[in-house]
Amino acid sequence: MTAYRRFAAGLVLSATTALALVATPAPAQEKTEFRVAWSIYVGWMPWGYLDESGIMDKWAEKYDIAVEIVQINDYVESINQYTAGAFDGVSATNMDTLSIPAGSGVDTTALIVGDYSNGNDAIIIKGEGGLEDLAGMPVNLVELSVSHYLLARGLDSVGLAERDLDGVINTSDADMIAAYQTDDVQALVTWNPLVSAILDEPGANRIYDSADIPGEIIDIMFVNTETLAANPAFGMALTGAWYELMGLMAAGDEAALTAMAEASGTDLAGYQSQLASTEMFYDPAAAVAFTESEALKETMVNVAEFLFDKGILGEGAPSADFVGVEYPDGSTTGDPGYVMMRYDTTYMQMAADGAL
Amino acid sequence: MQMRLINRRPGRPLTVFLALLPFVLALIGYTIASEIRLAANPADKLLPAPGTIIDTAVRLFTEGDRRSGRILLWHDTGVSLMRLAIGVSIAAIIGLVTGLLIGLLPHVRAALGIFVAVLSMIPPLAILPILFIVFGLGEVSKVVLIVIGITPFLIRDMSQRVIDIPTELIVKGQTLGASSMVIALRVALPQIMPRLIQAVRLSLGPAWLFLIAAEAIASDLGLGYRIFLVRRYLAMDVILTYVLWITALAFLIDWALRTLSRRLYPWAGEGL
């Protein structure tokens, strides 16, 4: 009977939570408890370590707040949850943030520009060949993801387009390695650690990767703009904790790196090889310089055009300029009247100045 | 004297009202939640207004894709229904034949009974990578996932139904000189056909589940594919349209099977 009651109580509780979740999208008031979501990816492993090492708690205490770091097993789901208001921040790429939260009208700020993919995303074919050989081939990838963007950029560089392929086949990243081993698959696009696992297979040949488009696939900690505006302490605590760990990583702190390697299912050497194809901004000043560069604007325009071309900005989107993006110098691309995505270097600059 | 609750029956108008009530309440609940979210953020995509869903539905059902010009929803539906039909038919045939054999032949029962019971406990989604490598990533693996998913249940149900056939019928068949074959085809088979339809109706839920899971993993067309694709940009208006459409299709298939069963086997009695 007790067990039954407890079950019933749990059910009522979860129903209430679900209702509360549905009814309260991203409150913008001042508050002291924050939740950020992250998912497994080489450049985001620090979030897991910040949580387990207590570095996050230390910085949160300094600013009299509490920050809960939650790992979500499914990347897209973590962004969707953030967009629905269940989290105050999420680790995501520049592209997915423009399409999901910003496209859904959730004003989102890039708080910490962590790294860009410098080879972590790759197009792989079986056997010899180059980008031109993709013509007439089916390509397996997670459709509408950065892989799809990489493919579009790659094809573009040799004067091909997606219609020249024998179609793209949406394939879950969780099954990409198994998919590679079937005869149906001739070419695929994916990201690390899958890339290194697949390249270990006989005959796998990397023909194009994100090092060919450096700085275009950017991994960022995004936070809700209104929440950040009402709670600067949240931004300061996250940024402070992040760059404390970046310092450790840059110094080659073995304990931290090993913990992150194990959490991502590899060993220290494996993790370091993934880091080698990731341009981490260990130094906040480098992140600020990157975020303030003109190249970022060009990248965001490219990304917006890709998203619009694939219909990802939604049927309501009249053009690729539907969503506005604001840059640190105050300039915008896209619709300046509907800015939903912002690059803000304030907090990274504080870290660079040692003001946190 | 007070009438017991279990003996009170609603009249015709009240029956209709009671049947509609949960639907109306669900719709009202959804509309309220949607309005709360849209008031906070007019561009919210999580719970689109019912009007938006209707607009999207009209567009999906009638307008072609911007690039290919094909009306994707119908193509998705055709492909998915084909996979479902093939998968469920194969599973039903295997279930029927194996069920008859296990139910009628003690030797087969001794050999396969426990094996099928164990087999039915394997979660098919957990062995997906093996299925991919054995059956490839094409149509076959999607159909196979449905077959693996629902066949053990069908076999077990069919065997049990055959065992449940009154012994008197089997004995009577034998005294009239029927062989094992004739008993299987003329006594057992007609008895379990309506049960097979019933079992297929019950396994359609899991069959849809496996179909959508298979399409989510590797595909370029299909209802499950589309749902998981547009989830990447949280197009809940599209997802909800597809969900309602799948629900309607599943309900229609279920209704068709029930009608078929009543037409063909009116003696099998009233079912839900």
TrEMBL record, chain A:
Main location: periplasm
Keyword Signal among record annotations: yes
GO cellular component: periplasmic space
Residues annotated as signal peptide: 1-28
Keywords associated with the record: Signal
Compartmental location: Periplasm
Domain of life: Bacteria
Family: Belongs to the bacterial solute-binding protein SsuA/TauA family.
PANTHER family documented for this protein: ALIPHATIC SULFONATES-BINDING PROTEIN-RELATED, TAURINE-BINDING PERIPLASMIC PROTEIN
Name of the protein described by the UniProt record: Alkanesulfonate transporter substrate-binding subunit
Organism, scientific name: Roseisalinus antarcticus
TrEMBL record, chain B:
UniProt superkingdom: Bacteria
UniProt-listed CDD domains: TM_PBP2
A Pfam entry, by short name: BPD_transp_1
Gene3D superfamilies xrefs: MetI-like
Main localization, broad class: membrane
Topology with respect to the bilayer: Multi-pass membrane protein
Record GO cellular component, one term: plasma membrane
InterPro entries, sorted: MetI-like, MetI-like_sf
Signal peptide: none
Membrane spanning stretches: 84-105, 112-134, 208-227, 239-257
The ABC transmembrane type-1 domain, residue ranges: 77-257
Localization of this protein: Cell membrane
GO process annotations (BP): cellular response to sulfur starvation; transmembrane transport
UniProt entry keywords in alphabetical sequence: Cell membrane, Membrane, Transmembrane, Transmembrane helix, Transport
Similarity comment: Belongs to the binding-protein-dependent transport system permease family.
Name of the protein: Bicarbonate transport system permease protein CmpB
Organism, as annotated: Roseisalinus antarcticus
